[in-house]
Design goal:
The chain is mostly helical. It has a domain at 9-53. 58% of the residues lie in helices and 0% in strands. The protein contains 4 helices and no strands. The longest helix is centred in the N-terminal third of the chain and has 13 residues, at 9-21. It is extended, with a radius of gyration of 19 Å.
Length: 72
């Protein structure tokens, strides 16, 4: 589907530069953003992506300590 938007020219120029820096087209950047805010429609893909991003969970014995994190 094609969508027509009214966007400030300077904003488009900045967005194109950002997209280029990410190795994407402005069109792809917008599609990705819309997909993010609209939510995924493929639960299997979401599960696989979550597993991929989760890592191994190996903390090597480190335990969370709120006082250390906040420098108390």
């Amino acid at each position: 589907m094609n969508v027509t938007l009214s966007i400030d020219e300077q904003l488009v120029d900045r967005a194109r530069k950002k997209a280029e820096a990410l190795g994407k087209s402005l069109n792809q950047l917008i599609r990705d953003y819309l997909q993010t805010i609209a939510g995924g429609d493929d639960p299997e893909r979401s599960i696989e992506e979550f597993k991929h991003l989760s890592g191994t969970g190996d903390s090597r014995g480190w335990r969370f300590n709120r006082d250390e994190i906040h420098g108390r």
